[in-house]
């Protein structure tokens, strides 16, 4: 089949103000703001029409982290929504009105098949107004992510949704290119973006709620250098959307201080908003140029992949699967960190990590556990 030409278009990378919602009214307020920003963006970039919008992680509901303001599973379930609910239908109406694909992440999603927990869900809504892609975040950091990863309930999850790489890391073929999505911590390591690249992704929508403490600004800014690498490695656009500012009693206003960007398929930065304020970035997406670039063999990061030498890395599990099966959802962040003890035992036990001076291999797993208990005793991690 002969490929059809895809015209250039504008993608809008949104950097909104977010309020941490406690209930549906709070969600509605965030959603109102998001829709106003779409109205602005499609109006401003009228000469090369917008076809794709990317919102950050938790842009509707917000999220909490360790400390006085930490929420347990009950608080999250109170603001969990379904992807066929009224919030997504509102976004669907906007997608239909403007002929858009709307991507976002960090939906605190209630899934009927697993009613005792929530998933951190990224989505893409098509111009039909329907959800055309749903992705459940894979790499949820144990220390700050309470949602369930498919890996936490892996055997059961695969029985319900399937376990093929195309199911776990979906990519959709659309009239504006092949679209995929990964969420926040997914982009810190190569695997998820590589799976999307394997599935053909040309544009990776990348919603995040990335905090300054993790390095969003110079001199570290690992957010930028890692995501430029993800784009380069897969010869794909990466559209990274972060919060601009936040309202929450326990957060500084610049908790997630912007830094949203658009990176092209060579790893070059096209647009960047390196500040903690609301912004709408408009970037030209040229799928035909990407496809021509991929047709060359020189410095082609897929043509030269030689898999045989790397298989041993993945032969044995590192973070163990099925840690939170049905009836045993993670209830606090301390729960999520429980399996890390086993990971440390493995990494140090096989000699990949070397303990600090004066520590033995056996000490290292205990050290992690001691830190968790000490934080609980201080009141900086929830016990239940």
Automatic annotation (TrEMBL):
The keyword Hydrolase applies. Keywords: Hydrolase. Pfam families: CN_hydrolase. Residues 9-287 form the CN hydrolase domain. CDD domains: nitrilase_4. PROSITE patterns: CN_HYDROLASE. GO terms for molecular function: hydrolase activity, acting on carbon-nitrogen (but not peptide) bonds, in linear amides. The keyword Lipid metabolism does not apply. It comes from the Bacteria. InterPro entries: Aliph_Amidase/BUP, C-N_Hydrolase, C-N_Hydrolase_sf. This is Predicted amidohydrolase. It comes from Rhizorhabdus histidinilytica. The lineage of its organism: Bacteria, Pseudomonadati, Pseudomonadota, Alphaproteobacteria, Sphingomonadales.
